[in-house]
Amino acid sequence: MTEKKNSNGEVKLLGAWPSPFVIRARIALNIKSVEYDFIEETFGKRSQLLLKSNPVNKQIPVLIHGHKCIAESMIIVQYIHEAWSSSGPPILPSLPYDRAIARFWLTYIDDKWFPPLKSIVLGLDTEPIEEKLEKVREGLVLLEDAFNKISKGKDFFGGNQIGYLDIGFGSFLAWLKTVEVTEGVSLVHETTTPGLAKWLQKFCAHDAVKDVLPPIDKLIAFSKMLRANVDLVINPK
Amino acid sequence: MEDLKPHGFWYSPFTMRVVWTLKLKGLSYENIEEDRFNKSPQLLEYNPVHKKTPVLVHGGKPICESMIIVQYIDELWPQNSLVPHDSYERAQARFWVAYSEQMVPALPALIQSNSAEEKEKAVQKAWENFKVLEDHCLADKRKFFGGDKINIVDIAIGSFFVFFVTIEDLKQVKILVAEKFPLLHLWFDNFKNAPVIKENFPDREKMLATMKPFLERRLASS
């Protein structure tokens, strides 16, 4: 791992280890070799610091850089790309068209693909689980096609380096694996989604990623706790 | 001459964002007006995932999602920049653009409200968002969200406010109440009178005439 830039306590990240949105910020900080204080929120209870640094949405992650507070995971990722532009590889694609494509798929992942997966994790009874799994699978087919087009034969969506879309999508991989284990299903597989299967291996092994993706057994235990406290997830204090 | 073809519905706030941006940049384009109830095969080909407008086709390549299109145009044609230069200010602008998404449910709630009670409830919901903007975003009394110049936040939020004032006419209900939201009221006045926006602001009578039967059609089909 490349030597981290000493930030003298100047960079703080408010978050929680299981959150894919927090994982996004951590991967981006790692890519740029930024040292930061990771301040963990307690599940179900918002700290004063969180309420002060993100008064509008009151959600993690929040990046605190000096006196500046930045919220929303992919906005934080873009900020990190810009603020530490002279350190490490770029995170966003260089061409506006490629950025537009990456942002499009990110929006799709957050707005359409993740909600059924989240619903499975939380054990919500909005619809049968088979239907939710089918939606997740259909989305993965679209993302497989997107990966093949965007990567152009390279390892990642970002080409030779992990980038914006790798981070945005890859942050969900531990939860995806957790659902595969708890529900006894296969979602990403070398026969159905060969491109994504290969990408997944490389992504999870990447230096900037491997220490921030939570272990599956820990996530399985956490998901049991989540299901027992769904009301706190939906209406946090 | 750039080969720019935006596909959209002139009355849609999402299409307005794209048109305003093209006009603010002084770009010429060929408008492709889609029919919401009969979308063109080209549109379905350009946006197979969502099958929605707006789509900007540039040199044959499609870009989807209104604010992604706006950022694309701004990045390719940096004159009259629509994002702050400073990274932190830029992050703040992006935050408020993202926040504007939270205002979307208020629009159909207002459109579908009929009884006085339903209207009251829908207006209250919109007011929750208005209060956040008034207290957190405009508290320093700037002319536009972008300060002296229009930026992506003005474009994102301004497009929804065109709809709010149309609904005021359609439903005979006051939403943007000056006494409750003085800064927001002043901001919208500044915005709709700004050069380029004023010349490309949808005609009030035309909006009413278009939205009325659309409303009736939606109510009939629901």
UniProtKB/TrEMBL annotation, chain A:
Catalysis: reaction(s): RX + glutathione = an S-substituted glutathione + a halide anion + H(+)
Q: Which residues form the GST N-terminal domain?
A: 9-88
Q: What class of enzyme is it?
A: transferase
Domain named GST C-terminal: residues: 95-232
Q: Name one GO molecular function term.
A: glutathione transferase activity
EC no.? 2.5.1.18
Report the record's Gene Ontology biological process terms: glutathione metabolic process; toxin catabolic process
Give an example GO cellular component term for this record. cytoplasm
| InterPro entries linked | Glutathione-S-Trfase_C-like (IPR010987), Glutathione-S-Trfase_C_sf (IPR036282), Glutathione_S-Trfase (IPR040079), Glutathione_S-Trfase_N (IPR004045), GST_C (IPR004046), GST_C_Tau (IPR045074), Omega/Tau-like (IPR045073), Thioredoxin-like_sf (IPR036249)
Q: Which UniProt keywords apply?
A: Detoxification, Transferase
Family recorded in the similarity comment: Belongs to the GST superfamily. Tau family.
Q: Which PANTHER family match?
A: GLUTATHIONE S-TRANSFERASE U17, GLUTATHIONE S-TRANSFERASE, GST, SUPERFAMILY, GST DOMAIN CONTAINING
How is this protein named in the record?
glutathione transferase
Q: Tell me what organism the protein belongs to.
A: Arachis duranensis
This protein's encoding gene: LOC107481266
Automatic annotation (TrEMBL), chain B:
The Gene Ontology CC terms held by the record are: cytoplasm
**SUPFAM superfamilies attached here?**
GST C-terminal domain-like, Thioredoxin-like
Keywords from UniProt, A to Z, are: Transferase
The protein's Enzyme Commission number: 2.5.1.18
Gene Ontology molecular function:
glutathione transferase activity
Catalytic activity from the UniProt record = RX + glutathione = an S-substituted glutathione + a halide anion + H(+)
- Ranges where the GST C-terminal domain occurs: 86-214
Pfam (any one):
GST_C
Q: Kindly give the PROSITE patterns that the UniProt entry links to this protein.
A: GST_CTER, GST_NTER
Checking Gene3D superfamilies in the record gives: 1.20.1050.10, Glutaredoxin
Superkingdom of this protein's organism = Eukaryota
Q: Per its UniProt record, what InterPro entries does this chain match? A: Glutathione-S-Trfase_C-like, Glutathione-S-Trfase_C_sf, Glutathione_S-Trfase, Glutathione_S-Trfase_N, GST_C, GST_C_Tau, Omega/Tau-like, Thioredoxin-like_sf
The transmembrane segments are none
Q: Where is the GST N-terminal domain?
A: 2-81
Family stated for the protein in its record: Belongs to the GST superfamily. Tau family.
Q: What is this protein called?
A: glutathione transferase
- Organism annotation: Arachis duranensis
